[in-house]
## 1
Amino acid sequence: MDATIWLGSAFALFAIGLYCVTKRNMIRILLGVEMILNSGNLAFIYFAAQHAAIGVVDPVGQSIVFMSIITGGCVVAVGLALIVNAYKHFKTTDSRELRRLRW
Amino acid sequence: MVIPASMYFLFSPMLIVLTGLLAERTGQPKLRDVVAVIVSALGVVFAWTLYNALQAAPDKILVFSLGGGPPLGASFEIDMMGMFMAFSATILGFFATVYSYNYMEHDTRLTEYYTLLSALVVGMLGVAFAGDFFTLFIFWELMGIASYALVSFRKNLPGPIEAGFKYMIMGSVGSTVLFFGIALVYGITGTLNFAQVSTVIHGQPMNLWYYLIFALFVIGFGVKSAIVPMHTWLPDAHPEAPSPISAMLSGVLIETGLYALTRVLFILFEPSFFKLTIAVFAALTMTLGNMMALRQDDVKRMLAYSSIAQIGYMLIGVSTGLTYGLMGTLLHILNHSLMKGLAFLSIGSVVYATGTRDINKLQGVGKMMPFTTLAVIVSFLGLGGVPGTNGFISKFILFNAALGAGMLILAILGVLNSALSMVYYLRVIMVLLSGEAEEGMTAKEAPILMVGVTLVMAVLIIVLGLYPSPVVGIASSASEALIDNISKYIGVILS
């Protein structure tokens, strides 16, 4: 029952994130990426709690979640910088307008 | 085990930041460029020192753990296969940095540039030496973030921003999908260490979860290594990046993705499980890459599609699942890093001098830039697999391995594709050599440092083509390392 709730939420977040990535707004796409990352984080936290063989929650699962939050923050920083620059060039945050490079 | 001093090379981007800030303050910006070149040369020394340490090690494997032993600590596992990638990355990184000294001198923000370039190399080294999924993921992201920023480095132009955004989204979706896959592996095994994961998973009956993990890993690594359905970022990102960065991306970054995919697949699954899928991807990737390259007029975009095709050839070796095929893959990774690196650098010199990337406008440039054109010709013939260049050796081994594994169709497709690819390579060579230059087209030979780098690489390509046995020997032991060393690594970790 526990597994269904936690893993179910993780997969749901994953699906919502993938859905967001297909949208037009650049900021929404970036948030979609973060959601996929957080679905992984959620799964890790759940599994870490399951592997509590030594009486405490497994620290490996927790530490990789901390590191992934940090790298996720870096990716968002780069992404937002790119969005600001794209807005300067194209005067829009609609990703479909970025279609100069095709074929 | 004591961590050798050379491993501290992984902190080198910080050194470049500090010297860069100091150099800008004191008004000596060239100091930073020189330090960056020296640091990238130290990278080759680092790889060489580790290689010697590895040769001296009893089991031909070095394992270092940080923060306690596994499963808690993060670990580096250095073997011949990782060394092979490390040599490709550091050597091409050195050439790209030397080339940047002249190529980037009109750009600003060079402290950021050299730092990111160094971080890219360090990220690849980390991926090559990773001994667990934790280390792999951190360095994977380091490599990714550095490359997103470098692709869109010239942010005053719309092209790099668009290509960079596309690459950033696809790449980060790829790495987050990979992260989810790692979470599932962790859920099944309860550990992240490669050796422990391998002991738990091998021999288990395949169920739905394993298929899901396989799909997540193929998508996650496949985005970075531009396997065909996930390749669409590459033909945008490679032409828009500065030429040394195109060389790095095309020469080693996509191969690092392929390397990580190969390594993880062999850790998790038996070759019989993934052979057919990878073979289909190989056929798709090389055919589509070559077909699309045929219709390009932008020379850097053509090279980008050609990189996709070359990834397809490398996948042939993985799909055979034999040490001989893997040896071909590894050899092709090293050879491709030299050939495609040289192709992008020498074409970069042409673009630097003429200011255009359109193939049809490059007529008669060969007479104005003889040395650069020589380098272009050597690299393109190598990419096409002409005997006498190193590209021939590795392609021969790859197709031979496909025949040996009973994959006749794949071998035939490979040879046909290889022949087809000559069409667009020869077209560029013909345009460069023949015809008179257009009105107003002036180009003079690139600065001495750029010409020097390209000529040294051209000589390396021919030397490795005529005298391949040392490299083939190393590649052979590296491919054996992939299969044997899992058990050795398990022995070291679990003892």
Note: Chain B touches chain A through 42 residues (CB under 8 Å).
## 2
Amino acid sequence: MQRHTILPRNNWQSAVEKLGFGFHTADVPYWDESAYYEFSMAEITKIESATAELWGMCLEAVQYVINNKLYARFAIPEKAIELIEKSWNDDDPAIYGRFDFGFDGNNLKLFEFNADTPTSLFETGIVQWFWLQDFASHKDQFNSVHERLVDYWKYLKPYLYEGILHFTCVKQSLEDLTTVEYMRDCAIQAGIPSKLVFIDDIGWDQEKREFVDLEDEEIKNIFKLYPWEWMVNEPFFEQLLANQKVYWIEPAWKMILSNKAILPVLWKLYPNCPYILECYFEEENSLKDYVKKPVYSREGANISIVKNGQIIEKTEGIYGKEGFICQQLFNIPETKNKIPVIGSWVIGQQPAGMSIREADSLITGNTSCFIPHLINN
Amino acid sequence: MKKSKVVNLVLITAALASCSKPKPDWDSNEVYLRSDTTANYTHTQGSHISPFLWYYAFRPYGMYYGGGYHHSGYYSSALTERSNIGRSAMKGAVIRGGFGGSHSFSVSS
């Protein structure tokens, strides 16, 4: 894994905007093609194998949590349990997830699994792919995201309820809208009729006792870029429980996998797995060098890095009241003061591609840049 | 090869490319609206709503019957209650806003 500094394309802003990528720059560029990462095929094979292996372990871990009723440790409310177990036992449709890894050239370690609402899908599957077409089209890239999304929607189509597949997200985020519209694009290519409805526009028909869109058309299948841990605390969750003949994608059992409490469970079940870092719930922690993370948190919020018992870096935020986990600290080598985190995608149960976010600090937050990659054969 | 052989987009380029364009240089967002064809017009402003999402401030409602969709008016949180609440009975059966209220920013993770 090597970082190379390069000149961005002259017209890179217009090139990515033509693809529909409108949030490439905030205060600083989020999409950064002034560098790229080069991987050997052996490294990619390692990441791919780890992703497949961890996905299998994660499914085992979900079963373990359900069997042992560990919901309280995950801060999952009692009212959600039946829904979680039903979605798991019924094998409700699920599409994707993203493992975040640290890699030091030899060791690949899992930091967390974004299993419910992973973003940067469009940047990975589309923007990065077209960048390689311009930069070195003869080279390869670990990135079959687009093909796998279209194929998996085709596979799922007969399992969905007949009719429309709705897509939803918050109104105020172009990033979220882009992710959802990209996912919808793939579903359309799979031959599935679709509609967009923003999350706060979803209606509940009190007479028919069904969710409806803005045209009062019934919602039977809906892909949501909106976390379950927020939904369970919102008024319509009662209605959701009242009408369980709706496929919510990702399904409710992802509440277990997207929760950082899954990390100590994975460590307990698989202490010899080379990809899993030692990890404990806070009250059981005996580590001296560790990262303390809330069981619910986003974009690097409320994270502390502790070395020899002293906090060396910390972020603020709104999370933490549900409890913390402590994960062994893993050092990623810096290149030009940049720290890369690898996002490895699972789509339709299979490893599907890779994204790299680069931060100036040990904690990857919402200002981290997306850097493209290629494989050197 | 580990990369997709071909990538085609059918929706997103057209739908989202306009989002990166500069905001129109309008003198004012002031408009006169009514959300229900049976209600009165009032003056409102939409300066906090991006042009792309502007149309979503006016939430249509209606009903399917007789083999087609019959539009009756719009819900809108941008309008005063006086113009939002008319005599149409169709609005009564559906409640909205039960999801999305606790957080309105990106869910990015």
Note: Residues 19 and 53 of chain B are 9 Å apart (CA to CA).
